[in-house]
């Protein structure tokens, strides 16, 4: 015979990924537990309609009971909304108020992972701030959110404030940039949950619910590739256009084509402001004047010409850029040649948007 206490104990194993390590019991989300014979019905309360984590929490609660209860126990999870959502807007209740003072919203995209898209995004944001612009970066890379690590802000949880019925998330501020990342809301091992259909809603929230304030540039570090999440993002976020990052290798450049086609697709129709050739050449730390074209030379320029997009910048492959990413002090803060390469990129992007 299962007791109510057992159920509560099992439900304590279900942690809410957006609320640190707190579980759904201590968060007061368990509204009711009903046991009749060998079937259990649990009612979970959610504060709002369309909570992006609802499906995940319902699934986890059910799994926690099934895992612990005697086999044959029937489990049903019901939900109630504790505060009725405002009726005015259909769909996800997000407006564009929080991004209304942002001048340029730019997606940073890449045809494939591992080309340095996040490294370029983070350093470009820092370099734009160095030039005196007001900058924000939203890290929407569900496959590997890197802003927390690259800015040494892992483990931090952004503050949320309630304004009437609206919850607003405050961005992190460091190096003169406002940062937000999907990584602040999920532990790396929980990142899987962001890859389902609800990832799109969570991403939109992470961009549209953040108090960005007045900004010249909001960069969106997009997930690599050209899947459904991208199409949804470019449709639902008023992106002005995109910057594409690639390495000079043929395999990476072949994927640039997919990225270009995605933005130029009739249903999307967003301009591409330029291509960034990352890892354009290798420069050893002890010989700063030498360039070794280990991934081939001129690939970025050929691709830019082929698609009639500007080559906005070339970033060398140097140890200090990788170290900057790992230590959380972006290379763009420095006055070394690699730092200045990001500043030159930032100048060119800002110029092209005037
Ligand atoms: P992506 O976002 O495209 O998956 P990342 O930005 O995470 O790629 O970069 C992948 C790895 O390559 C990271 O370890 C990063 O530090 C390193 N890296 C990226 N660009 C450079 C560069 N120009 N020089 C040295 N290391 C780099």
Short recap of the structure:
The protein has 354 residues and is of the alpha/beta class.
Could you describe the 3D structure shown?
By secondary structure, this protein is an alpha/beta fold. Helix content is 31%, strand content 23%. It is built from ten helices and 13 strands. Strands 8-9-5-10-4-11-12-13 form an eight-stranded mixed β-sheet, with helices on both faces. A three-stranded mixed β-sheet has the order 1-2-3, covered by helices on one side. A two-stranded antiparallel sheet has the order 6-7. Strand 6 (160-163) and strand 7 (166-169) form a beta hairpin. The longest helix has 16 residues, at 337-352. The structure holds adenosine-5'-diphosphate. Adenosine-5'-diphosphate binds at residues 110, 113-119, 144, 146, 224, 278-279, 315, 317-318, 321-322, 325.
What keyword list fits this structure?
13 strands, elongated, binds adenosine-5'-diphosphate, alpha/beta, 23% strand, 10 helices, single chain, eight-stranded mixed beta sheet, 354 residues, three-stranded mixed beta sheet
Helix content: 25-40%
The neighbouring-strand order within the major sheet is 8-9-5-10-4-11-12-13
The major pleated sheet works out as: 8 strands, mixed
- Estimate what percentage of residues fall within beta strands: 15-25%
């Amino acid at each position: 015979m299962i007791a109510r206490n057992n159920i509560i104990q099992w439900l304590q194993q279900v942690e809410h990924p957006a609320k640190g390590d707190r579980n759904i019991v201590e968060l007061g989300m368990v509204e009711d537990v009903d046991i009749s014979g060998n079937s259990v019905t649990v009612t979970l309360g959610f504060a709002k309609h369309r909570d992006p984590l609802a499906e995940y929490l319902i699934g986890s609660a059910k799994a926690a009971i099934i895992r612990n209860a005697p086999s044959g126990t029937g489990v049903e999870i019901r939900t109630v909304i504790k505060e009725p959502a405002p009726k005015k807007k259909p769909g996800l209740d997000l407006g564009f108020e929080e991004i209304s003072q942002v001048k340029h919203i730019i997606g940073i995209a890449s045809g494939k992972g591992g080309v340095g898209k996040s490294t370029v995004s983070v350093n470009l944001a820092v370099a734009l701030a160095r030039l005196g612009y007001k900058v924000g970066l939203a890290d929407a890379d569900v496959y590997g959110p890197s802003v927390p690590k690259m800015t040494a802000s892992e483990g931090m949880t952004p503050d949320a404030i309630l304004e009437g019925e609206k919850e607003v998330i405050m961005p992190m501020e460091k190096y003169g940039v406002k940062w937000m990342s999907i990584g602040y809301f999920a532990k790396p091992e929980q990142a899987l949950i962001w890859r389902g259909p609800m990832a799109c809603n969570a991403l939109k929230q992470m961009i549209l619910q953040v108090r960005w304030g007045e900004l010249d540039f909001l960069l969106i570090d997009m997930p690599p590739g050209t899947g459904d999440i991208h199409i949804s993002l470019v449709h639902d976020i008023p992106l002005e256009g995109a910057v594409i990052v690639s390495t000079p290798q043929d395999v990476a450049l072949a994927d640039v084509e997919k990225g270009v086609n995605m933005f130029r697709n009739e249903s999307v129709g967003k301009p591409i402001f330029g291509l960034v050739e990352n890892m354009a050449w290798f420069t050893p730390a002890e010989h700063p004047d030498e360039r070794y074209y280990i991934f081939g030379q001129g690939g970025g320029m050929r691709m830019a010409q082929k698609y009639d997009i500007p080559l906005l910048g070339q970033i060398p492959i140097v140890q200090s850029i990788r170290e900057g990413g790992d230590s959380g002090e972006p290379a763009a803060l420095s006055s070394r040649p690699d730092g200045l390469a990001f500043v030159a990129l930032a100048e060119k992007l800002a110029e092209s948007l005037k």
